Amino acid sequence: MSMYTLIILVIGLGILGYALAYTLFAAKERKAVKGDIDAELPDNVQKHAYIRNPIFLTYAICFGILLVMITYFALTWNW
């Protein structure tokens, strides 16, 4: 396994570990909803609705890694 692959693997595992810990932490803080009405979002999440959204965060990380890979292959590929 090359050093580049190992670095990407470690970074990916770190992101997955952080996401799992964040999800478990957020799930423990979530209070049970009574009735058919959803619970109110915390103020911190309402202020940063896009930054705190895990879907947008996943897309941003994916595109960031994709850009790094494209740049790496473009600079190292023998045309």
Automatic annotation (TrEMBL):
Q: What is this protein called?
A: Short-chain dehydrogenase
Its domain of life reads: Bacteria
Q: Transmembrane ranges?
A: 6-25, 56-75
Q: Which keywords label this protein?
A: Membrane, Transmembrane, Transmembrane helix
